Amino acid sequence: MQALQDQKAGQPSGPELVGDNERGRSTLVRRGLIPETRPQQILALATFVNMIGSGVFMVSAALFFTRVVGLPLAQVGLGMGIAAAVGLFAGVPVGHLADRRGPREVYLWTLVIQGAAMAALVLVQSFWLVLVALCLGELARSAGGAARGPLVRGVGGDSLTRYRAYLRSVANLAGSCAAVAAGFAVQFDTRPAYLALVLGNALSFVASAGIISALPSLPPVPVPPTANRWEAVKDRGYLAVTVLDGIMSIHHQVLLFALPLWIVRHTDAPRWLVGAAALVNTALVVLLQVRASRGVDGNVAAGKALRRSGMAFFIGMAAMAAAAGLPSWLALAGIVMGIVVHTIGELWHTAGSLELRFSLAPAHAQGQYMGLFGFAAGLANVFAPSVLALCCIAWGVPGWLLLGGVFVVAGLVTPPVVRWAERRRPYAEQPAQ
């Protein structure tokens, strides 16, 4: 009777509505707007929620600690630096635990711990208690990155390359939304507003854990009899690739740290370009990361992608450096061109880096290897501000060109090192579980 009434009213009946929904979903999948499978969609949603909360906190952390907790800026910087350094050491052992106990379960616990550590920040008032909470949160964050690696591999399946790129686009989109949300709170500049941001981040971890719990458990990959317990740190080929990628990962701070200081101190470009640079970079990553990752589905292609990225970083940094001393409109044009070219290099670097960190690691030890790769990337983030301050800000144009040359050399060296690492692999590639 209901179906007949729907038809008389010009509305689709139940089966027709289901068919329309399926066709709509298929269209979204073809256009790359949503992943193919339900587990992939679940992990993508959890990623978006998690990065919204984390992005909000990253934007407002310094203001929260200085204006709400009442810490001096020097202590804030010291505490966040110590926490970041401490967190680096959790990746390999927790990644090994995820390999043996299941990545979903371990990742769930890391999210819960991060949520608890973040919630504790609204209760603490002294530097040492803040430091303890920050260190606990960073340890859990680093551990979560290692545990998430084999989870992404298992969920990604045959479309792993495309899915990894999709997740990065989702993370950047979430970061943009987080920046907008944090901007409103900073505009209010009140204690309740900053507390809301911190508690919102804590809730985002809990929400992400709830979403991840809907994923099926992934059984551990069987370990070959000849496997070594801590083989990631003994795999010289993988270590070499990791070091090169860590050097190139310094580029992540060029647009966030070096360029704003360069624009304000050394160029006549309009100051609004400081904020626009991040927006342009994020928009290009969201729109183009999946496309840039097409064809980067093997070690050889990944090595070539990193080689191209090194050249792009040099050209982009040279364009940004050349803005010094130019008239305002020429400086603007040069910096914008540099941002675009630098972002193209970032797209290639991300595509190649993600492929290598997965494909060079044996299937039974993905978490352990992800932890090692994360250690190098984290170490690059710790040292990047000092390196960029010395090269780009203190030395000026020659420093920009020197650092760009380092990226070129690292990119050129990567393909032969990747071939060497591939020959040293003790295990043949195993299918994703």
How would you describe what is shown here?
This protein is mainly α. It folds into two domains: 36-212, MFS general substrate transporter like domains (Growth Hormone, Chain: A), CATH 1.20.1250; 232-423, MFS general substrate transporter like domains (Growth Hormone, Chain: A, Up-down Bundle), CATH 1.20.1250. The protein is built from 16 helices and no strands. It has helices at residues 2-8, 14-30, 38-69, 73-87, 91-101, 103-120, 127-156, 160-188, 191-212, 236-248, 254-266, 273-292, 299-321, 328-359, 366-394, 397-423. Helix 5 packs across helix 7, helix 5 runs antiparallel to helix 15 (366-394) and helix 8 (160-188) runs antiparallel to helix 9 (191-212).
Task: Give a nutshell description of this structure.
By secondary structure, the chain is mostly helical.
Sequence stretches where pLDDT stays below 50 over 5 or more residues? 1-12, 429-433
Supply the CATH architecture of the largest domain: Up-down Bundle
Tell me, rounded to a whole number, the average pLDDT: 85
Tally of contiguous helical segments? 16
Sheet/helix structural class: mainly alpha
Any idea what the shape is? globular
**Nearest-angstrom radius of gyration?**
23 Å
Q: The CATH topology of the largest domain, please?
A: Growth Hormone, Chain: A
Number of strands: 0
Characterize the largest beta sheet: strand count, sense, and whether it forms a barrel: none
CATH superfamily of the largest domain: MFS general substrate transporter like domains
Strand content: under 5%
Oligomer: single chain
